[in-house]
Amino acid sequence: MGPYYDEIEIEDMVWDDIKGVYHYPCPCGDRFEISKAQLANYEDIATCPSCSLIIRVVYDPLDFEDEGSTTENDSEAEQEDVKND
């Protein structure tokens, strides 16, 4: 990937409960977006869905390590419920 448009601290981004992503304003008028699952997987690139700009998100991956395991545990529990029915 090419150079980043900017580096943004996670604290400067806004959590969107509806879409389930952190977002930050893009100069094109849309918003850069990155999910907690991406952050848990050590992905630090937020993309804008409307243009080619990307930003690097500065954060502590340890703050999101439970996010990846929660998703896996939820799907395992759902599979277990289906087996028991």
Notes on the structure:
The chain has a three-stranded mixed sheet with strand order 1-6-5, with no helix packed on it. A three-stranded antiparallel sheet has the order 2-3-4. The chain has helices spanning 36-40, 65-84, and strands at 6-9, 14-16, 21-25, 31-35, 45-47, 54-58. The chain has two helices and six strands, in the order ββββαββα. It is an alpha+beta fold. The chain starts with 5 loop residues before the first strand and ends with a helix. It has one domain: Microbial ribonuclease fold (Roll), CATH 3.10.660.10. It is globular.
Question: Layout of helices and strands, plus pairs?
Answer:
Elements: E1 6-9, E2 14-16, E3 21-25, E4 31-35, H1 36-40, E5 45-47, E6 54-58, H2 65-84
Parallel strand pairs: 1-6
Antiparallel strand pairs: 2-3, 3-4, 5-6
Organism: Acaulospora colombiana
Protein name: 14104_t:CDS:1
- The portion of residues assigned to helices is 25-40%
Question: Distance between the terminal alpha carbons, to the nearest Å?
Answer: 47 Å
Mean pLDDT, to the nearest integer, reads: 81
How much of the polypeptide forms β-strand, as a percent range?
25-35%
CATH topology: Microbial ribonuclease fold
* Succession of helices and strands: EEEEHEEH
What's the architecture, going by CATH? Roll
Tally of helical runs: 2
Number of extended strands: 6
CATH class: Alpha Beta
- Let me know the CATH homologous superfamily: DPH Zinc finger
Q: Please give the domain count.
A: 1
Q: Report the sheet with the most strands, covering strand number, pairing sense and barrel closure.
A: 3 strands, mixed
Structural class: alpha+beta
Protein name: 14104_t:CDS:1
